Amino acid sequence: MLRKAHFEQIRQAWPFVVVLLAGTMIFLADFYEFQNPFFRELVLSLISLAKSIWFIQFVVRRVRVSTQEQFFFHEFAAFIGISVLLFVLSFAIDFYCLYQINPDAFLGLPATPDLLDDFITFFYFSVTNFTTAGLGDIVPNAKSARIFVASELILSFFFTIFVIANLALLRESFSRKGHK
């Protein structure tokens, strides 16, 4: 049976689902070759930019809301874990879609294209970008690929340094603003 808390979690998660569905729609548009490659790349870039802006707002809003309720570590850990997973997954989808639009966008990929292997490779690539390990086995080759990688690195820096490392300070700041 669904409880009020479950509905709240579903309400908070729907934008992530929309982002993943948008990535899937871009993949399908490319797979069936709707429009020209430049248009598909432009749409992918705009969706990725919108997703990134939304992600920053979502995280800041969630930290702000946490100042007005009891704060449990396991809830915060779940929030961080799910957010990181969805963030990495959404960029993996972006990288994969970009690769499907422009096969020369990345160097260092397996020679024989396969949907599952390619997606796992891009998930791995997204994880190495998010953690800033950047192992160098996969390299962005096109301008658009470099922009996507730079975007993920900037957002992962924001998420890691400004949110996780400074959570207590952010909560205190939002709490003071709310009491004025």
Plain-language structure description:
This protein is mainly alpha-helical. It has a single domain, classed as Helix Hairpins (Orthogonal Bundle). It contains six helices and two strands. A two-stranded antiparallel sheet has the order 1-2. The chain is elongated. The mean pLDDT is 79.
Task: Describe the protein's topology.
Elements: H1 4-31, H2 37-66, H3 73-101, E1 106-107, H4 115-130, E2 139-140, H5 143-164, H6 167-178
Antiparallel strand pairs: 1-2
Helix pairs in contact: 1-2, 1-3, 2-3, 2-5, 3-4, 3-5
Tally the beta strands: 2
| CATH hierarchy class name | Mainly Alpha
Order of helices and strands: HHHEHEHH
- Approximate strand percentage: under 5%
Please give the alpha-carbon distance between the first and last residues: 40 Å
Determine the CATH topology: Helix Hairpins
Taking the sheet with the most strands, its summary is: 2 strands, antiparallel
* Percent range of helical residues: over 70%
For the largest sheet, list the strands in their spatial order. 1-2
Please count the helical segments.
6
Give the domain tally.
Answer: 1
Q: Overall mean pLDDT score?
A: 79
Q: Which CATH-level-2 architecture?
A: Orthogonal Bundle
